[in-house]
Amino acid sequence: MVEIVKVFPGQGSQQVNMGLDLYEYSERVRSLFTLASDISHMNLHTLLTEGTLGQITDTRVAQIVITLVNRASSVLLEEKGFKAAAAAGFSLGELSAYREAQVIDDIQLFSITAKRGQLMARNAVSAERRYGELAMAAIVGLSFDQVDEVIRQCGQPHVYASNDNSKNQVVISGLRSSVEKIEVLLKDLKVRRVIYLNVSGPFHTPLMDEAKAEFEQFLQGISFSKPVIPLYSNVTGKKISSNEDIRSLCARQIVSPVRWTAIMENIAADHPVCDAVETGYGKVLSGFFRSTSVRCHQAGTVEGLHQIQAMNKDGQNERVL
Fold first, then answer.
1. 278 partner at 20 to 30 Å CA-CA among 96, 137, 232, 299?
2. Is 91 assigned a catalytic role?
3. Residue 168 is part of a domain; what is its CATH number?
């Protein structure tokens, strides 16, 4: 088995038709589709085949289909001889990392994901009723601390630095009018780009407190096992030391900034001879890893899986070997 670090994408990576090539390729993946559909009470194959991007982007749908494709990609990597030396997931993707570390099983994975999506979708609606239109935007060209300082100094209500994606990309979330005012201030600082995200809530901010409280209660009924491989937390950016911490961290993650920069730095330090593989659809995480010493490959399609396998066989990927 070849050791890699599996990193799992989160909400925002959804696309129509994603994962369908994996579905056609593997009977085991088809079984995962059936399980996730039964647990979520949605026909996920039909949604991915016939649904619009708007339907797929609904938080209740997006979270379960992204988790499904993450898991499908992971089992196919296993079948091709790639073993996880460590696991981390971006936001929602952390649940997939729990499964990789054998903290939970597949039934628990899809059950927790479905509940998380339902609660976060409902909280997003109630927050918009309470505060007004909400938004998330990626800021390219400044660090988390720089953006956070601008937010604190400007005094706009209900806006937060929510995702520390990389050394020069940060996401801000909250009231749209406040996000737009912050955007103007950041452009005065010559920020390179501001990109509004295809996500339906002010995630990883205190505006999601309602979802956090209900999710905490739900998680009391879940039994978490001790991670069998190093597992990194979005809340701290560090390895999770015991299963006793997971329940709290899993709930806190909904309202806490995503510390992805710290996770990447710790992966690079802890696993210097392993490549990372984006175990799910898209290439967002691979882009973030370009700012580190770790190479990251995509495995969310059959083509991507074959390319990784070919690199390994040809000896082109010395870090993986």
1. 137
2. yes
3. 3.30.70.250
